[in-house]
Amino acid sequence: MISEKDPLNGWHPVGIDQLEPAARDALPATGCTAAIAGPGAGKTEFLAQKVAYLLQTGACPAPRRILAISFKRDAAANLECRGRDRIPEHAERFVSMTFDKFTRASSRPGR
Hints:
mainly alpha, two-stranded parallel ribbon
């Protein structure tokens, strides 16, 4: 259950001091979350923190994994690097790739 006083139930961001209030409120949300902001506003960091939150709190219990899909290779690589840096103990449960790579991987025989 999410507490109104502490919506993150004692979980703290990894690799940064704190999240801005809107990101802190959105982090424990279930279902779809839209992160709409301009360049440099922290969308990638928010997603990396969301991955850490889901895996470290058990909201995404093992053996489940998280897949992040981006349009551009550099964005996918950046998010994967940030996510894995924040959760080395769960790194094998997170992958970030482009739409192209995902569709190629999904269409291979034997998958």
